[in-house]
Amino acid sequence: MSEANPIRVFVVHTFSEHPDYLRVFEYLESRPNFYYHNCSNPASRPASGTSEALQEELRRQIQLAEIVILPVTLFATNPVLVTFQVDAAKGLKKPVLAVKSFGDTVAIKKSLLDKADDIVDWNNRTISEAIKRLARNDSSGQWEVIEFKLD
Asked: What is the pLDDT of residues 94-127, one digit of tens each?
């Protein structure tokens, strides 16, 4: 992964910018030297608004990505559309990274979580490392350096 070759991510959405949808990008932006391209576009809701048109637009966006990120709290906003996106990702052979709700306050169907390749907490380092591992098979990791003064 480099600036010239960013990881292409799709974040599950319901054609609106849910706070957790936006939070994913805040966390990714806070990681130094983590380059990504956002393939999801909630603003591109088809004019017809039919179920088939929505699904086709989502498939198109998911096809462009290397990994699908699922903030689990979005499930409550539209379970059918969120489940479709996860199923489409699996059908397109895209890894799915689920991000838990803060404090695990939201219960999600086990059948949906079983489709995730990994489930992580809201932590910028954990999320970015899981993305690299699942999307590019890069498990190099980063080491945190803590300096202690020995006085």
From this structure: 999 999 887 666 677 788 888 999 999 998 999 9
CA distance 110 to 117: 13
| Residue-wise burial string across 88-122, b where 16 or more C-beta atoms lie within 10 A, e elsewhere | bbeeeebbbbbbbbeeeeeebeeebbeebbbebeb
Q: Where are the domains of the chain?
A: 7-136
CATH of 7-136, one of 3.20.20.150, 3.20.20.70, 3.40.50.720, 3.40.50.9200: 3.40.50.9200
Give tens-digit pLDDT for 67-85: 999 999 888 889 999 999 9
> Taking the model in full, what pTM does it have?
0.86
